[in-house]
Structure formats: structure tokens, C-alpha cells
Specification:
Length: 125
């Protein structure tokens, strides 16, 4: 039973992690708590709220992939680009402390289930 539920569970975990920062889409005041910034500039506010939408889309795609094997390659690609991309930029800029470290930790938590889902999904292709 573990082998039949492990891949969907891995996708669900990655999906939930990606849905966690969706709050600012609906409540912009959450930007201060999540990222340690209080955008007073409209341009920054638009960009940060849009930034909250993108991981949510990855999360929805991963949740879809948890029950639809056909969605798994797209979910893997989107989640890998998001996780590895953020961790790469985070490392490139010297692993800054604060809210960005929390995001990096969440992405590091998402990495093992993502790698497992990729291995199990791509090994079958």
C-alpha cells in the first residue's frame, strides 16, 4: 500500500507547502508578517501579491498531480523550477536571514518529497 500512496502523498506535501504563502493575495497586510516588508509603493504591492499567486499555482498543480498521473510531469517541472530557483537565488545572495530564511527552509522541506515524486514518476516513463 505504501508504494501506491507515497507518490500522491509526496505531491500533496509539495502542493501544501506551495499554498502556504497565498495569504497576501487576499490580505495584503500579511506581506509584513510573511516577508518582513510593508510595501508602501503600489508597484511593490502589486509585485508581491503577484508573487503570492505563482507558488499557489504550483501548489494547485501539485495537488492535482497527487490524484492525476497525467499532471505529474508538469507539476514536477513547475515545482522544481520554483524550489530550485528560489534556493539558487537565496544562496547566490549569501543566505540572508529573516523571512527569506523561512522560505528557504520551507523549500528545503519540499525538496525530498519533490525528488522522490520525480524519481518515482520519471522512472515509470
Amino acid at each position: 500500500m505504501w508504494t501506491t500512496t507515497a507518490v500522491p502523498l509526496a505531491f500533496a506535501v509539495v502542493g501544501i507547502i506551495h499554498l502556504l504563502p497565498v495569504g497576501p493575495v487576499f490580505a495584503p497586510e500579511m506581506l509584513s508578517r510573511l516577508y518582513g516588508i510593508a510595501p508602501t509603493d503600489t508597484t511593490l504591492l502589486v509585485l508581491m501579491r503577484h508573487r503570492a499567486v505563482l507558488p499557489a499555482l504550483v501548489g494547485i498543480l501539485c495537488l492535482w498531480a497527487s490524484w492525476s498521473p497525467q499532471a505529474r510531469p508538469a507539476a514536477l517541472l513547475a515545482a522544481a523550477i520554483n524550489v530550485v530557483g528560489f534556493l539558487g537565488f537565496y544562496a547566490l545572495y549569501g543566505t540572508p536571514a529573516g523571512a527569506l530564511r523561512t522560505i528557504a527552509i520551507a523549500d528545503l522541506v519540499a525538496l525530498p518529497p519533490l525528488v522522490y515524486a520525480a524519481w518515482r514518476t520519471l522512472a515509470r516513463s
